[in-house]
Amino acid sequence: MPAYAYTVRDEEGVTRKGTSEAEGEAILRKRLGEQGFQVLEIKQTKSAKKSASRSARVKLNELSMFCRQFSTMIDAGVSLVRCLAVLQEQTVNPRFKKMIGEIQAEVEAGQSLSRALGRFPNTFNNLFIGLVHAGEIGGVLEESLQRLSSFLEKDQELRRKVKSAMTYPVIVMIVAVSIVIGLVTFILPKFMDLFKDLGVKDFPLPTMLLMGFSHFLTSKWYIMIAGTVIFVIAFRAFVKTDVGRRSYDRFKLKAPVFGKLNHKIALARFSRTLGTLLASGVPILSALETVAGTVANDIISEAILNARARIREGDRIGEPLQKSKLFPPMVVQMITIGEESGSLDPMLAKVADFYEAEVDAALDSLTAAIEPVLIVFLGFAVGFIVISIFLPLVSVVNSLSGGDSGGGGE
Q: What pTM did the predictor assign?
């Protein structure tokens, strides 16, 4: 878990400094605010950044297989150290293999499995560590690993569906843009030279616009590349700020067409993650704090943390979620019923299944809608280029025909 150094001011106006571990900066800021402190500054410590940088990225299917095999061996009575040794031998990814070896050494030295996994935050997130920790405390580590494997498989399936749905439109767009750029930069200049040789001086407006665009691409292409690079760097810098990150996360929820899709994905992830944590025996306050750090949206994270604060004061979880207006009535009602009946985690699983099905339907509709739009765009672009090229030819043919008619009359 990342560590942060913070500077706060208490109710008496005294400035204090300290360090604390948290799932994220926003979560630590919220926690300190609940304790009555005014947060002045929060920075991630260098040691945490170094640890995070050396952690290897591991694919979800590798992590899921790791959990599934780990659970099976523990259920068969194999010791933790022996399990990790076998998993290290079976792992193909060299970085992951080395990581498992380090985890095995930590466990063999007396560390708990969850603390050993916590050394690699880029690979094992807070959800992973929280479930393992809950399994260790409750003596049901194999069940926690099974739930974690199922969760990772569901998450991988959701990501795969989103990627596969977006692959075809992206490929079509790349091809369309490549065709347009090829026509403008290679074919059009040859026609322009031909028109100049034929003595054409006055070009129609579409042709002049296309010539200007062609001239920009062929002679000032570096400006476009530099502008793109500057925009990307500026956007990334803006998104890293608190205001920029919140603005971008709010835009992702409100954007036309894609906003509803992102919202449904976030709701599915929230329900699946919270349900998995509660089913593994994690207390609801700790579960909500972990979920807030894994939904990848500051706006929804804030609503979850507000609900957590209200629960600490004795309220139910459904009311603050409803007031945030980010959770639809169906979700709030299902959570309320589950809370009242003592079956919150099964209800959350049903909500997750529902929204994952909604995401599938939304992706199918989006893909079906994008295809004709891209075809129309490509047809319009190519048609505009062809018309712009042939308009001067028409004027040349007309002038030649007029000249021939005049000569024949004499």
A: 0.68
